[in-house]
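User: Structure tokens for this complex, please. No commentary.
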Amino acid sequence: MSRVARRIASIAALAVLTVVAFANGDAQTMHGLPREGRGADTMPNKRVGRPSVGKEEYTRYCAGCHGDRGDGMGENTQWIDPKPRDFTQATFKCRSTPSGTLPTDQDIINTIRRGIVNSNMPQWRPLPDQMQADLLSYIKTFSPRWKSEKPGTPVVIPAETPVTTESILRGREMFQKFECWKCHGTEGRGDGPSAAALTDSKDQPIHPFDFTSGTRFKCGTTNADLYRIFMTGLDGTPMASFVDNIKGDQGWDLVHYLRTLQPIRTPESTLWKTWLATHAAELKPIGPESGSR
Amino acid sequence: MTFQLIVTRAASTGGTMRSTKHMLATPRLMACALVASAIAATPAAAMVTHASDTTTSASRPPAARDASDAYRAYIASIQNGEPAAGANYAAAKVKKIPAFARKYGLRCSACHTAWPELNSFGQAFRDNGYQLKNEKDSPIAQSNGYIPITVRVTPQFHVERATKQLVDATPGDASSGQAERTLTSHGFDLSGMDLWTAGTLWKNVSFVALLSSDNLASFHFEAVSLRFDNLADNPWLNLKIGKFELDNMISEKRFLFLSDNGGVYQTYHFSAPGSSVDFGIGDNQLGAELSGHSLNSYTRYSVAVLSSNDGDPSSNNFSSYDANFNFSQAFDGGKMGVERIGAYAYIGQRPTTFETSDGDPIAGTGSNRKTFYRAGFVGDFFLHKLEFLPYYLHGNDNAWLAAGTGANEPLPDGARDASWNGGFLETHYHLNPQLVFTQRVEAIRMSQQAFSDMPKTLGNIDAYSFGTRWYPFMFSRAGLALHGEYSLVKTVTGGQLPTEGPTINVWTSSLLFALDFDF
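Assistant:
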């Protein structure tokens, strides 16, 4: 091998090793969760959108499913389950704002970036921020609500409480008390007695989230995202807001319990498995004839 | 022990190791084939036989070789282009896969700036192993009726023209002497066909199997690979094994030119005059590639170890390996778009001697290997709807490879490394997702010939192409593009007639109108 070739090979190998080393540092899993939906997905996007530009990008990226008129009736809609969002209703699942209110711009940007798991909505993370802002501004032209209403005030998420066995057990009681199992199933598999009959706001069948799939959530990945989901609800779906029923730290209890249903390594699941090894017999089963432990 | 030195410009026999696929879209080769008989009268000393470790030449001793031999050998190598191969238009190389659009319900434009060129989202999709990562990637999540197959073919009308082609002075009379003519041909034609199947076998296990044909439906494996994606839940670790396109940031497989002259990047397939290196950076290669990317694919790298056979399983050059390195970084350019820069290096080696059996080389027994490399940088810049694709390559072939000499014998007098610089600037104007205008200017300049007394400009190429593609409809089931293109290439080659100087300029051009469709 010539000297020049050797030199190029050495430089290239060094560069690759550097990248991989850097990447490995970046690759440490957080609580064993999937990498998607973390960090960059919720970075603020302060670009000013341009609806006229956004229209062209919408045609390129979105109209096939959401339709040229934003009514969720693109040419692919007939093949898609769940159905694409109807922007003319300005009803959005993933919000930081109370149920029934418009989401913030950042809420929609976050959805564009992380997509929606188990749907055909991909992660548009590679699109530059300006393009995402342009798309957002155009999406907002489909409903007059964006002219007559303002986004709701984001729900405040308190600091997370420590993960303890007691917190998980309290969360389990809430899972029973608020009848989460009716849709999500006694083991969180999304197979509760009501699951088969659920429909969305357009009378389309809809499936409850299966916690045992181990995937990210529809609206995020972190514990705070999960807390936010049952405080804001998923508008347009049977998943209601529990903001009037669940107060402060109770929300974290439920989050901690739901984490134990996922087949991924989390502090909650580690703690819970340890506790179950010696206390499983103390638990009453979740379901219609059960109550607290 | 008997050795045979394989020097690839075997002018006396008309043989060459230069892959015919390099010639698929170079009409000058088709035309130059006409002059084979004339040059055969002045064979270069290219095939040398070794007996008992003593070098002997089949024609002339190596020391007697000179620059004239080298570039006449170069000309001879050009002559061996097969006319039929020249009709295999590059459309067969270009990739766009509506099977993915069908699977995910996305329009072509979601992944392509103008298909088949990928945009930043399409690049990320490809980097993820043809996955959207929405937990619906595995085939078990798809309807049983879904079969990931795509067919692409391009009916067309084209005009080909080449200057200074050697013909019999009197048609039909081989003894009438030779003259140069400008040859023009035109007519309706077909491209080859791509038969694609690609997708996922399971979550994070993806595959590609691509059968490509010429316009007579003679198929070969253009690409076959299996890729393990996101090893250890880490997008920086993906392993691909098989035959695949090098991780070229500007892909010749997904570009917007189809004509005979414009349908290849000259820089990707250039060989220095007289060199025995059978490598094109645009050719699919056999090997294993480790690659990785950030979540949005703005940062990308790849390292590949490849067999030294230019992706040709029938080659003798097994048992030695090349390496390819790529790195690129993209930036959010705000209102301009996504801007990307990158660098690459390919370091290869080729044997110059083989064990033989009955005089034929035995595959995998190559020895006395010598190196070559290609390195450069590349960009993809957006200025709103205007896209610029600059590309630069520096090539170097070791003196033994450049001179076509076995490394178990001394170099001929005056022999040295061959090196050159090449590159292009391609521009796209994306008026909207359904209409794009393209142009490309390309140049290759020899900076050092294999022999000091060879003409400095021998082998230089200038090329220019422009065209447009209109997509009358765009949805997730199929694609159609109405394609128009003109391309012009000037090649500096060796003088062919006694009255000519050491070099002449040969101009070739293509005019193409095509219906490029896939389903």
